[in-house]
Design goal:
- The structure holds 2 protein chains of 2 kinds.
- By secondary structure, chain A is an alpha/beta fold.
- Chain A is built from 17 helices and 10 strands.
- In chain A, helix 5 (81-90) crosses helix 6 (99-109) and helix 9 packs parallel to helix 11.
- The longest helix of chain A is centred in the middle third of the chain and has 23 residues, at 166-188.
- Chain A is globular, with a radius of gyration of 21 Å.
- The termini of chain A are far apart.
- Chain B has helices at residues 10-22, 27-34, 51-56, 87-96, 113-125, 142-164, 170-196, 203-215, 218-234, 257-265, 292-302, 320-329, 343-359, 376-394; strands spanning 41-44, 60-63, 105-109, 130-134, 243-248, 268-273, 333-339, 363-368.
- The complex binds iron/sulfur cluster (2 copies).
Chain lengths: 437, 395
């Protein structure tokens, strides 16, 4: 799963962009340039995952962070993931498994070309931050087979009982201290400096405050943001290569000001076609989006005046809206707590609590689940989650199905039909709730 | 006329094991529970739980591996999308249909995200049942993964002590370790005997014996294995000109029994498999002296089976266990049989296939579901594989 900065494939003129969006795009582009120029600059590259992404730590070793999930998303947005997925299937990968993995592997076998048209460097180290998804473990075993580079496992226990225990924290801190850090020192040739880590963690917390502020503006009516489609842009820098940097602080401050201004002006979210019209439906969305038809998918919402006021997907790289912040006074413990708390590492009851809370706190009309065909981490159990949230909130819920980056599983007509009936259901509920004339 | 059917003949033993296998209400476990007031049953899913701790609490560990091809899934499908494997939906069906209503606790081991998420579903669906996601370390250093795991085991021990209302002593644990050591020795003996003379232990029989071990008290299961081994050695079954294969990928959702039979009917003696790994997860005896939980932890870290649900820290070791299984059993090929939509089996498969290719070991692959009915294609594929192996070895 995860998140990136979508660069919708459309003529520039018909894509309305906020200044923050332009800024974010430039940051992401600069990062890709840094990555692809690594062979010339001599920078070393660390591949890792978005959930449990230890960007502050990676930065302490001057390593560049490369996120294969984000690369798969980029391939999806540029409509080339389909051919990559098929390529991977051709060389023996099952049609049943996560399409991010296959998009990544297919991309490698087709030259490993980055969105800027240049070749990705081979990773110097794979930091297998094993948090919230089984597939991660196999994905990096597959990449290790290909790149034959150092592979570091950091195992995050699952919060099966709805909390983390001192044993879990101790286990993770020991892994960080005795294995992850010494191995990163060895690969990078840079000595670990805990003060440098503290500095970065402080910066993370600052940006996290602003991100949470932005996400919570959706409590207002109308919401100035779309917390799913738009939210994906907002989380790009902090879930990607920028958490713990000045760039992230600057970006989130800029974004916060921009959104506050929209709020003050009573404007709704910006969409690829400009400001959204009247807000008619407020939804909470569970699950990742489809990326191969991202704009088309989004349009199905804004055309109907549906705005997503909260989403679980924008929490996969870290859950900050219930109070967690990176804490520089406990550098390794805080990294452990961060990894433990990412959305997909939370038990199903915790996920249900979160979604219920969102429906209530953000005064949503209901919950919509976009179930991803090839993602067991998110999808297994979602039907029960839907019924539970419906029961607890008394608000209607709906279920649609697609895939992240495999275009074969995006059926626009089906999804549109489902959405239309869902909106009708919301209307009926509202009419039913109105006192009789 | 051969020996008359005695209670010790393989046919009688397999008949009993078959009845246990076919009984979707787990009568044997129910009877065990009913025999004495206060007895408790703790269910567990694949891939591994330390059954010693459940046993030490005086409880019956009950292995639950879905509903197979005989359970009609009525409610389970409302809980899972079509692109999720079968075992969670038939397990939910077992729960909702009351077939597990005598179970006092459930353990959901760390194997994949489906069973992981099922642990949370169980908490919501059966709030009165003790349930726990059972995590295991992916770090194999004694001071790191070992400490973590020993503490997790201690938590489980405390939970079960609470459930029975009295602490579990070290003596009880050491005794249970000894009982399971014996059981694992017998399982290993059966596997070794089958590898040596596969015509003497048909794969379906070996599987039924292992399945009985999920339901019976371990002492009874050990007796069953002992009796079977003795009886099997007494009788000579016809030896056929079959090839020898290792079957892999079966570690969670179970293939229909017919599928296992079909492989042999197609000319493939199964000389090793990864069915029900819990029965032999720890590959050597666990010491019965010293700290029992530490001993279990050490055994897990350093003497346990390799499988897709575990991280392999050493790249050179990746998949070598399969090559070793082939060499050890004299197998001529490997069959990858994986449940549809199974992340661990299917994501691991290409890597294992590369290792086999490098070692010059032929393989085939197919998928199944626990309720697959059509065996003809699998039989044909396995038959062609067997023929090609023979052809190959004849050259
Ligand atoms: S299975 Fe899901 S969570 Fe895991 S990598 Fe794939 S999309 Fe992400
Ligand atoms: S069959 Fe595979 S995917 Fe399904 S529950 Fe078992 S291990 Fe998980």
């Amino acid at each position: 799963m995860n998140t990136a900065a979508p660069a919708p494939k459309a003529a520039a003129k018909d894509v309305e962009k906020d200044a923050s969006m332009q800024k974010q795009k430039a940051m992401m582009a600069a990062h890709y340039d840094r990555l692809t120029s690594a062979p010339e600059t001599g920078a070393k590259v660390c591949s890792t995952f978005v959930p449990g992404n230890l960007n502050e730590l990676i930065g302490c070793f001057d390593l560049l962070n490369n996120l294969p999930e984000v690369n798969a998303i980029q391939s999806g947005l540029r409509r080339i993931s389909g051919q990559y997925v098929m390529e991977a299937e051709k060389i023996g990968h099952s049609e049943d498994v996560c399409t991010y993995v296959k998009s990544d592997i297919g991309m490698m076998s087709k030259g490993n070309i980055a969105p800027n048209g240049k070749k990705f460097p081979n990773p110097d180290v794979l930091l297998l931050s094993y948090t919230g998804c089984f597939t991660f473990m196999k994905w990096f075993e597959l990449l290790r087979e290909q790149f034959k580079c150092e592979t570091i496992m950091l195992h995050t226990p699952y919060m099966g009982d709805g909390c983390f225990t001192p044993n879990m924290i101790e286990y993770m801190v020991k892994q960080l201290r005795d294995e992850v850090i010494p191995k990163l020192e060895r690969v990078s040739g840079v000595k670990f400096d805990i003060d440098r880590l503290r500095e970065r963690l402080k910066k993370s917390a600052q940006a996290e405050d602003d991100l949470v502020h932005v996400l919570q503006t959706a409590r207002n009516t109308p919401s100035p943001i779309d917390a799913y489609f738009g939210g994906i842009y907002y989380i790009g820098p902090i879930f990607g290569a920028f958490r713990g940097t000045d760039d992230a602080i600057e970006y989130y401050r800029f974004l916060r000001d921009e959104i506050d201004e929209r709020l003050a002006q009573g404007r709704g979210p910006v969409t690829p076609e400009g400001d959204m019209g009247q807000e008619r439906y407020r939804l909470v969305v569970e699950g990742p989006p489809n990326y191969t038809h991202f704009r088309q998918f989004w349009k199905m919402f804004y055309d109907e005046g549906a705005v997503v006021v909260a989403s679980s997907y924008t929490k996969v790289g870290g859950v900050y809206d219930f109070g967690f912040r990176h804490d520089s006074s406990r550098p390794l413990e805080t990294l452990a707590e961060y990894c433990l708390g990412v959305y997909t590492n939370r038990s199903l009851p915790m996920r249900i609590d979160m979604l219920t809370n969102y429906v209530e706190e953000y005064r949503a009309d209901g919950l919509l689940i976009n179930s991803i065909k090839s993602c067991n981490s998110f999808s297994a159990g979602q039907l029960l989650m839907m019924r539970e949230v419906e029961k607890r909130t008394g608000k209607p819920a709906a279920f649609i199905e697609s895939d992240l980056v495999d275009p074969r599983y995006f059926s626009a007509a089906n999804i549109k039909n489902r959405l239309e009936s869902y909106f009708q259901m919301v209307e009926q509920r509202r009419a039913g709730a109105r006192p009789a004339a | 006329m051969g020996t008359p059917l005695s209670s010790g003949s393989t046919a009688v033993i397999i008949d009993r094991a078959t009845r246990i296998f076919e009984d979707l209400s787990f009568s044997a476990a129910r009877e065990w529970k009913a025999a004495q007031p206060g007895r408790k049953v703790v269910g567990y899913l694949p891939i591994y739980v330390p059954r010693e701790i459940i046993h030490a609490a005086g409880m019956l560990p009950l292995g639950i591996v879905g509903g197979g091809d005989r359970l009609e899934v009525v409610h389970g499908d409302a809980y899972y999308q079509s692109y999720i494997c079968r075992i969670p939906r038939s397990t939910v069906e077992l729960g909702l249909s009351g077939r597990l209503d005598f179970v006092d606790g459930m353990l959901f081991p760390s194997i994949c995200d489906v069973i992981r998420n099922l642990s949370g579903m169980w908490k919501l669906m059966f709030p009165h049942v003790y349930s726990r996601y059972f995590d295991v370390p992916q770090n194999y250093a004694d001071e790191i993964g070992g400490n973590y795991y020993a503490n997790e085991l201690a938590e489980l021990r405390e939970d079960l002590a609470r459930l029975r209302g009295a602490p579990i002593t070290d003596e009880e644990l050491c005794h249970s370790i000894a009982v399971y050591n014996e059981n694992r020795q017998l399982v290993r003996e059966l596997y070794a005997y089958r590898a040596e003379q596969p015509w003497q232990v048909p794969a379906a029989e070996s599987h039924l014996l292992m399945r009985a071990g999920l339901v019976l008290p371990v002492e009874q299961h050990s007796e069953m294995l002992r009796d079977y081994l003795a009886a099997a050695r007494q009788q000579q079954r016809p030896r056929r000109d079959y090839c020898r294969v290792v079957v892999t990928g079966l570690f969670c959702e179970q293939p229909p029994l017919n599928l296992i039979k079909s492989l042999e009917l197609a000319g493939c003696y199964v000389v090793d498999d990864d069915l029900l790994l819990v029965t032999r997860w720890l590959t050597s005896d666990v010491p019965v002296e010293g700290d029992p939980l530490r001993n279990l932890a050490t055994a897990f870290l350093h003497h346990s089976e390799s499988t897709a649900a575990k991280f392999e820290p050493n790249p050179l070791e990746k998949g070598q266990y399969l090559v070793r299984a082939v060499r050890r059993t004299g197998a001529e090929g490997v069959i990858f049989a994986s449940p549809s939509f199974c992340d661990p089996a299917l994501l691991d498969r290409p890597m294992l296939q590369h290792v086999l290719a490098d070692a010059g070991i032929p393989y085939i692959a197919f998928k199944y579901a626990e309720n697959s009915g059509q065996m003809q294609p699998i039989r044909e594929q396995a038959g062609t594989f067997a023929d090609s192996i023979k052809l190959w070895s004849g050259q």
